[in-house]
Write a structure and sequence with these properties.
The complex is a heterodimer of chains A (about 500) and B (about 200). With about 500 residues, chain A is an alpha+beta fold. Chain A has 9 helices and 27 strands. Chain A has a 4-stranded antiparallel sheet with strand order 3-27-26-25. Chain A has a 4-stranded antiparallel sheet with strand order 4-5-6-7, with no helix packed on it. A 4-stranded antiparallel sheet of chain A has the order 10-11-12-13, with no helix packed on it. Chain B is mainly alpha-helical and about 200 residues long. Classes of the chains: A alpha+beta (about 500), B mainly alpha (about 200).
Chain lengths: ~500, ~200
């Protein structure tokens, strides 16, 4: 009897596995071609809270859900270690590092073209492990041809325009090796390149390929104790210490305002995510509510950011290589959600995120080690947040109010929504209401601002009573003293 | 009764005179001292529950009354014990009761100022937090000065000797805390050992 039960249990489990496997692998294309849920992947969404002592992980509603995975099978072309995805004109450009080509697809991941080679003055030239590309508005394709130590610029129909070889300059070391990895080009045709092993910052070129210099160098920071040691030790001893080398950038993203979001690997760097203006200065706003700051995971090992992208309202997404998590921050640096996780085989987990792209509202995550691209769609919760942020930025406060209320209906622990509603209430001059919302958001700074307004309003409304009360007290004291004197005199 | 309460204010405003009277003319009263400790605890409790949201450094935390009680009461005994153990070596004239009463009377400014700041946290905004900070500093300085003058008067010390004994008192307090923690750790280890022996026996038998 027991045996039979065991057998049937085994059978049931096996059956369940078969069902789940089939439901995860069957991938048909739905009517609109893209939004077809292959599987309910995992996201394990959470945020952090510093309220009530210490930093705690607070689970949050899913911001994005994976719905489609692009791999060699579903793409119909061999996809090996893709390291970058770029878009222009509703086309997607996948840098297929492992196969040394660029795959061009339409918005539904239908392959349009595979660029294996190009015509270089009569001879067919190929790429060697390219790691990055950029497409500008005119359709010009910039390819970081990493192992060939050059940048290849192709035109709309993939004909060669120009090749930028390793630059020669006084500021570069004699043994400098040019290994461009990521590339962006701004509207004035300046080319910004993240190159492997370059610590001086981002390499900057004119459109004609001449080298300008470095921008956005990361300052080297040394602790006072390290400086003291350097002073005390002899030269031979210091040469054996680890050197204070600035960290190099790992990825770069050009946002809609032509500012560059950059990420860099370092466990000692306090600002791994930076937003550089064209002059190279970091202009990222770090003004979050209590509980979050723009440095990735707050518990356990430090995050090592390797990919970044941003939308029009400056909400940015940064991917960590340590635990393959994606961090979503708003313009002020408030952590909206953390999702993803180390690869378990489930959809929504990643081995190594090498690039991310926001495409038509969806988030495309390129996993170079799993050789796959995961497409995620925003949930209603995330859509409400995005709408709230967008309308708040543009001054549509009534609409923003509605969006934040909707976000709260999904997540009543969402401090940012309370805080934003509080701000809107201040604008409506409902200071009392604003104070209540700031209290819910645990936002003491803004509560104080609302309170100052509330207090002065209260004064002006009750000034007559206050004056009456004070003068009544004064009169009473005078009368009391007068009578007492009289009595003493008697 | 009225005199006894007036004497508290006499001490905090004229500490040299006041502490002298407290010891030599026996004007100090133990019930008043206990009442002051109770008030210290009570104002701490009121502050914990009624501090304004803007100035609440423990938003969302739960109040630990036992901890507050310990913070209100233990330092006084700790100070008295440490000071007694130092001054017996340094020819101090005060006994434990004198030192204890001196420490209790010296708490008064902090009690009064805590009530004021608790009210202020509900009225002021973040821009005006300097007022509260200044008041808190005044409170600390006042209490420290009272304790110092108290040591001088109770033990009939000259100023340099009072300074030395005050510094040594701080060291003694640190040593007492250290030994106490060591002792507590040891006791908990002994209990842990006993418990694991008990568990082992329970498993075997």
């Amino acid at each position: 009897m027991k045996n039979l039960l065991k057998k049937s249990a085994c059978f049931l489990i096996a059956f369940a596995c078969v069902i789940s496997v089939t439901s995860a692998t069957v991938g048909a294309v739905s009517d609109d071609g893209r939004r077809f849920v292959q599987s309910n992947g995992v996201t394990d969404a959470y945020t952090y809270s510093k309220i009530s002592g210490g930093t705690r992980v607070v689970s949050s509603p899913d911001a994005y859900l994976p719905y489609y995975v692009v791999d060699s099978d579903s793409l119909g072309a061999e996809l090996v270690n893709p390291s970058h995805i770029a878009t222009a004109d509703n086309k997607l450009y996948i840098v297929n590092t492992g196969k040394n080509n660029i795959i061009v697809t339409d918005e539904k991941f239908g392959v349009l073209n595979v660029i294996n080679s190009f015509d270089n003055n009569g001879t067919a030239d190929t790429f060697a492990a390219p790691e990055g590309c950029f497409v500008d508005n005119s359709g010009k394709l910039y390819i970081a041809d990493t192992e060939n130590h050059r940048i290849v610029i192709l035109d709309k129909s993939y004909r060669l325009i120009q090749i930028i070889d390793a630059p020669k300059s006084d500021v570069l070391a004699a043994d400098f090796v040019f290994k461009p990895q990521k590339i962006v080009v701004d509207s004035s045709n300046r080319i910004f390149v993240v190159s492997d092993g370059v610590y001086e910052g981002i390499m900057q070129f004119y459109g004609d390929g001449s080298f300008i210099g470095f921008v956005g160098s990361i300052p080297v920071t040394a602790s006072p104790i390290e400086i003291l040691w350097k002073k005390l030790l002899s030269k031979e001893q210091t040469s054996k210490l680890t050197q204070f080398v600035p960290v190099s950038y790992t990825n770069i993203f050009l946002d809609s305002e032509e500012f560059m979001y950059t990420v860099s690997l370092s466990s000692t760097l306090s600002e791994p995510i930076r937003r550089l203006n064209p002059g190279g200065a970091d202009v990222l706003i770090r003004n979050a509510l209590a509980g979050t700051d723009v440095s990735g995971d707050q518990i356990g090992k430090d995050s090592q950011f390797v990919a970044v992208c941003a939308d029009e309202s400056n909400t940015y997404y940064a991917a960590d290589s340590v635990r393959s998590r994606i961090f979503i921050y708003d313009e002020d640096g408030n952590l909206l959600c953390v999702m993803g996780g180390s690869y378990t085989g489930q959809i929504g987990t990643y081995k190594y995120i090498s690039s991310m792209l926001l495409f038509g509202g969806d988030l495309l995550v390129v996993d170079s080690q799993a050789s796959a691209i995961t497409a995620l769609y925003p949930t209603e919760y995330m859509l409400a947040i995005k709408e709230g942020l967008r309308t708040y930025r543009t001054g549509l406060y009534e609409e923003s109010y509605q969006s934040w209320q909707e976000a709260l209906s999904h997540n009543s622990n969402f401090d940012l929504a309370y805080s934003k509603i509080g701000m809107i209430e201040i604008r409506k001059k409902n200071y009392g209401q604003a104070m209540e919302y700031f209290k819910l958001a645990n936002d003491q700074k803004n509560y104080s601002k609302a309170y100052v307004k509330y207090r002065s309003e209260w004064y002006t409304q009750n000034l007559s009573y206050v004056i009456t009360a004070v003068s009544a007290v004064v009169v009473l004291i005078v009368i009391f003293k007068f009578f007492r004197k009289k009595r003493v005199k008697k | 009764m009225k005199n006894k309460i007036k004497f508290i204010f006499h001490i905090i405003l004229h500490p040299a005179d006041g502490f002298w009277d407290m010891k030599r003319e026996k004007r100090g009263s133990i019930p008043i001292c206990l009442a002051l400790i109770a008030l210290q605890f009570l104002t701490m409790l009121i502050n914990e529950y009624n501090v304004g949201f803007i100035f609440d450094s423990s938003v969302g935390k739960t109040a630990d009354i036992g901890f507050l009680l310990a913070v209100a009461v233990l330092p006084i005994f700790l100070f008295a014990l440490a000071n007694l153990s130092i001054t017996t070596f340094l020819e101090g004239e005060g006994n434990f009761k004198d030192i204890f009463m001196m420490a209790c009377y010296a708490l008064t400014p902090s009690i009064i100022i805590r009530i004021i700041t608790t009210v202020l946290t509900n009225v002021l905004s973040l821009d005006e937090q300097t007022y509260i900070a200044v008041l808190s500093i005044i409170s600390v300085v006042w209490v420290v000065l009272l304790l110092f003058v108290g040591i001088m008067e109770v033990h009939n010390y000259s100023t340099p000797r009072a300074v030395a004994s005050a510094l040594l008192t701080i060291v003694a307090m640190a040593i007492i805390i250290f030994i106490l923690l060591l002792f507590l750790d040891m006791v908990s280890r002994i209990f842990g050992f006993g418990y694991s022996v008990f568990q082992e026996l329970e498993m075997r038998i």
